[in-house]
Every structure is written in structure tokens, then in C-alpha cells.
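User: My instructor asked us to take a sequence, write out its structure as C-alpha cells, and then describe one feature of it. I'm not sure where to start. Here is the sequence I was given:
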Amino acid sequence: MPIKIPNNLPAAKILAAENIFLMHESRAASQDIRPLEIAIINLMPTKNETEIQLLRLLSGTALQVGVEFIQMATHVSRNTSADHLKAFYKSFADISDSRYDGMIITGAPVETMPFEDVDYWPELSDIMDWCSDHVYSTFHICWGAQAGLYHHYGIDKHMMAEKLTGVFPHRSLVPNHPLLRGFDDVYYAPHSRYTTVLAEDIASCHDIRTLSVSDEAGVYIASSNDMRRIFVTGHSEYDCLTLAAEYWRDVRSGAPTPVPSGYFPDDDPENTPVMRWRSHASLLFSNWLNFIIYQNTPYDLSSLNKTALALHGMRCAGC
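Assistant: Let's start with the prediction itself. The C-alpha cells for your sequence are:
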């Protein structure tokens, strides 16, 4: 089934060339079908690239998926044109009366700052609160995962001695969890961050549990018990060359820059990286769409607030 995207979104040409079935909003409006509605809070500086990466992964199921992109009204993007944002992005005020089956909150290059010092933190906090009765399941990525863990559960991030960057092996701690269905015993995912969350901090909260870990990269995937909040500390959505682009950007800036681990053949940045995480990324997102959202979300999204209240009663009062 197709993924429904805004008319004239520039990413469409690249995705169509990859044989991804796209449907523009005008055509979708003529069909008698309710797609899954997914909102994407895109906090990444390279918004166009992130759009392509996420749309590619959201297209990998038999479900029809509609997508809306959301920007922070309290932040001015320096890397994406105002015309692009005006044409294809909405603000929180635009969607505050809407409901969604799912929401993705991306990473952001602000992880070395205290959360409260990020200029759009109050707005993002309002959105995360709003999700409780307006979104069935929220998928937090990298800094977005750290932000969600901090906001909802008071679990803080910790600085590391140097940047964690590379492609690392992971294993499942709860292999029968719906989000991990079909995962191999060992699977790979990229990480690119200066901070981390600790497994013992997550273990202290009875409302969430760690699902996947890496010996090198630490906690990778965690979930609330009701599966309405998913936290992924890595970047499974990254393209093959994304880490390389970040590495050379950091080198040019003069910042201390470790060579991404397990990424360049022979750890030589002059060699072309090998993509080892595409199948895992596709499975992770398709499991989220199918087993977490589609199998549980109400057909009538206006009843989401009732679903949220019912699930709220199941949560642990100790968190």
C-alpha cells in the first residue's frame, strides 16, 4: 500500500526512483479508506534528508500511511529554507485539535545542553503531554528518546568521555516483544551521540523496560509497558553515508572526532561504508506500525482520549 505525502514534497522524486509507492494528498482524498495517521516532529537540521529516511521506512508495510510534518514554532531553522517549511510543515497550533495513530519525535543536535536550555523545550514538553490523549504511540529517536525519558519519567542523560559514533551489534532482552518480532539474534544499528541513558535508571522505573542493548552502545530500545511510548537511542533510519557525512563535517570543524566504530571497512575513512542495518530498520518500523499501532489503535481516533485514560489506570504509580 502507498504512503500518503504532501503534494509536491521534494522527497517524492527520490522515493519514487526507489520504487516506493507514493500517493499524493489529492489522490488519497478520493479513496474510501482510513490510513494510519502519523505525525513527524522533525528536529533534525537536515530536514529534507530526514524526511526521505523516515518516509522510506514508513512505506515498508501493506498499510496505507498518511504523514504530516511538524516544526517547532519557537525555533528558527538555519538549515532548511523557510519556503520549504511553510509549504510542507505545520505548527503545533495547527494540529492541536487533531489526533494521530502515531508520532515520531526525531533526534536533534542539542544533546550536550541541559534540556531546559533548549529554546523549544517548553513547546516540545507541551507536545509530549498532549500526545497522552491525542496520539496512540510515540516513537522517540536518539535525543528525542532522551527527551521523552526525561520529561515523562525524570530519567536524565549522562555525558560520555567522547562521542559515541559507529554501527554496533545489538541483542534483544525481550525477544517475544511485538516490537522485536522477527529480529535476528544479533542486529546492527548506527549511533551518533555524546550522551547516554543508563540501564539502571530505566530499571528503577516500573512503567518502562529495556528491550534491546549493545555491549558498546548501551541501551538501544526501551518501551513503556503499554507500548504507547517507544524510545530508540540510535539512528536506524540513517542512510549508508550519513555517519560519513557527520564524520567529515566534524573533522572540518576541528572538533575531536573518533572514527565511527564498525563502519568504514578496516576503520579507514577513505573506504566506502557497508550498509548493515537496512533490514533491521525496516523491521523495526514495520513492527511499530503493525503490531504496536494498527493492531491496537481505535478506528475512530476521537476515542483516543478514552483509550489513554483506560491505559493510564494500568500504569505503575511509582514512576
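For the description part of your assignment, you could build on this observation: The chain has one domain: 3-162+169-182+193-238+286-301. Try explaining in your own words what that tells you about the chain.
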